[in-house]
Amino acid sequence: MIKIEKRNDVPMALYFFTPFIAxxxxxxxxxxxxxxxxxxxIEALKFYFITPISNLYGLxxxxxxxxxxxxxxxxxxxxxxxxxxxxxxxxxxxFGAIVGGGVALLFYNQEGFYILPLVILAGAIGGxxxxxxxxxxxxxxxxxxxxxSLMLVYVSKLLLDYLVVGPWSNPEGFNFxxxxxxxxxxxxPLLFEGLRIHAGIxxxxxxVMLSWFILYKTYLGFQIKVSxxxxxxxxxxxxxxxxxxxxxxxISGACAGLAGVGEITGPIGQLHRxxxxxxxxxxxxxxxxxxxxxxxxxxxxxxxxxxYLGAETAQIFLQxxxxxxxxxxxxxxxxxxxxxxxxxxxxxxxxxxxNELRH
Amino acid sequence: MYKNFFxxxxxxxxxxxxxxxxxxxxxxxxxxxxxxxxxxxxxQHHEGRNAVEAAGIKTxxxxxxxxxxxxxxxxxxxxxxxxxxxxxxxxGYMDPTNKVAKDFPNVKFExxxxxxxxxxxxxxxxxxxxxxxxxxxxxxxxxxxTNTIGYIASFPIPEVIRGINAMTLAxxxxxxxxxxxxxxxxxxxxxxxxxEAAQALIDQGADVIMQHTDSTAPVQTAEKAGVWSFGQASxxxxxxxxxxxxxxxxxxxxxYVERAIAARDGTWNQQDTWHGLKEGMVxxxxxxxxxxxxxxxxxxxxxxxxxxxxxxxxxGPIYDQKGNILVAxxxxxxxxxxxxxNVYVKGVEGDIPK
Lengths: 359, 354
Description:
Strand order of the largest sheet of chain B: 2-1-3-4-5-11
Structural class of chain A: mainly alpha
Radius of gyration of chain B: 22 Å
Strand content of chain A: under 5%
CATH class of the largest domain in chain B: Alpha Beta
Structural class of chain B: alpha/beta
Order of helices and strands of chain A: EHHHHHHHHHHHHHEH
Number of helices of chain B: 11
Distance between the termini of chain A: 16 Å
Number of domains of chain A: 1
Oligomer: heterodimer
Helix content of chain A: 55-70%
Mean pLDDT of chain B: 91
Number of helices of chain A: 14
Number of domains of chain B: 2
Mean pLDDT of chain A: 91
Largest sheet of chain B: 6 strands, parallel
Shape of chain B: globular
Largest sheet of chain A: 2 strands, antiparallel
CATH superfamily of the largest domain in chain B: Response regulator
Strand content of chain B: 15-25%
Order of helices and strands of chain B: HEHEHEHEEHEHEHEHEEHEEHEEH
Shape of chain A: globular
C-alpha cells in the first residue's frame, strides 16, 4: 500500500534548488529525445543551449526575448502569490499594445521626446484596465478569474484583428492587416548599434526591483503573502481582501501591458496580428520556474527564452523540428511540478500485514 | 588528335572539380510561416525546397516562424550561418527580409508576395493565381444550378480581390446570371472558421464553394453537404474526392531550382517575378470526371489559351459593382491595375471590408 504524507520541514534552500534540478532533468530528457530522433544528443544540446548565445548578437536576442517574459512573470508573481489566478496576461499584453499603439499612431507623423513616455504609459494603463475586468468581476460578482481572464485573451486578440484590418490599417498598405510604421520618436532606443536589444530591458529591471521592494518591504507585500498562505488568516487579520485583489491584478496587467508596448515599440515598430508568440502564457512557466521570486524570475526568463532561440538554431543546423522548443518548455514545467510534489510530500510504501488483511 | 582530346578532358575534369569545389558549401535557406504538413501554402514551398535539394543543392528550412519580432532573428541566423540564398515565404517577412538584406550584401534574398525591394540583393516573386481562378470560374459557372458561388476570402488585399474578380468574370462569361457571395474570415488558416463560413454560404444557396484560405475544412464541409468545391494551394482531392472539381496548385519548384542555380553560378539578378500558368508556377489538379468530358476539354483549351496569352483573365469590358467601366472593350487590365486591385466587379455581392 502506498501512502502519501505531507512533509512538515521543507528546507528553504532545497525549495530554491529544485528549479535547477528541473532544468537538469529537462536537459537530460531532451538529450534522450534527440537520441531517439536519431541525432547526436551532445551535439544537439550544444546547438540548443550554447550556440544561440555564443556571440554578442545571440546574447542580445536572448535578452530581447527574455524582457517581455520577465516583465509579465513579475506581474503574475503578485497575482499568484496572493492566490489570484490571472491566466490572461496574453490578453493584457495585447490590450496594452493596442492602447499604446493607438497613441503611437496618433503621433505617427510627429517627432518629440515626450511621445515614447506617453506611449509606454498608455500601454501600462491599457494592460491595467484590461486586468481590472476579471478583478472587479471576481471581487464584486464572485466570478472565477481563471475563466474570465482567459476568455478576455480572445476578446483582445479579436479587437486587435479588427483594428489592424479595419480602422487602423495602413492607408498605403494595400489592405494588408497591419498599421503604419510608428515614428522614430515612438520607438524604444536601441542600446547598441546593430543589436536589437532596446531600452525596454530597463523597464523589466525596474519592475524586478520594485516588485522586490513591494513584496518584501511593504505592508501590501505582507498582505499578499499572507493571503497566499491562508485566505482565512488574512480575513481574520482584517486585511481588505477586495482592494488587494484589485491592486495585484492592476500590477499584473500593467506589467503585461508594458511587455506588449515594449514589443511593438521595440523590435516590431507597428501593430499587426502577430505581436506576441504567446508570451503571456509562457510567462506562467517563467513565474513558477522563478519561484515567484523577482530575482528567480530574471533567471527563469532567460532559461525559457533560450528554449525559443535553441529551437531555431537546432532546426537551422541539424533540422531538428522547431516544436522541440515547446517540448522543452513543457518538460521544464513537468519536472518542476514533479520535483515540487516530491519536495512537499513523502511517499511511504507500507507493507500490509497478514492479520490486517483478515480483518 | 588524341592529344587534344586528352587535353580537353583533363581541363574539363579540372574545371568540373574546380566548380564543384567552389560550390560545395553553397546553401539555400527557407523560412516558412507554418508547419510543413501535408497540404497547403507551406507544404508547397517545402516541395519547392525538395526540388532544390534534388538538384544537388544543400538546403535548410525553419518552420512556423511567427511574422512578428522573431522573423528577423531567424533570417539573420540563416544569413550568418553561411546560407547564400534565402527564401522568405510569407508576406509578413517583408520588412525583416529587407532589414537583414542590408547587413548581408553578399547573401541573396527572395521574398514571396511582397513589394519592397529596398536593396539590390532582394528579389520578390509571386504567382498569377488569378489565372487559376479564371479556370475555376469557368467550371463553377457551368456546374452551378443555383447560380450562386460561395467564396471564402481571407483578407481584403489586392491578391484576394483579384481572385474573386477573375473567378466572377469567367463564370459570368459562361453563365450571365452568376452571383458571387463572399464570407471574409480574416485568417489564412482556421479550420473552425472556414467550416462555418462554408456552411453559411451553402445555407445561402451556394452550390459551389471556393476558398482563399489554407485548410481543408471548406472542401470537407462541401463534401458533406453534397456541393462542389475547389482545392487551394495543393491538390486537395483526397480530402473530398466527390466534391472537388479541381485544385489550384502553387508550384514553386521550377522557380526555386532556377534561382538557386543562378545564385550558385553567379548569374542571379534582382527581379520582380510574377509567373502564371505559362511558366508553371500555377498548375491545376486533376479534373473531376463529374464535370463531363466536354467541359474538361473546354477548360483544358482555356488553360492553354491563358498560358499562351491568347486569353487574358481581365479582358474588357469590365464594370465595377455600380456599372462604371473599369477596363474598356477590347483592352486588358495591365499589371499595375491588377497589383492594386481594390474594387469588386459587377456580380459580386456586398462591399469590400474597410
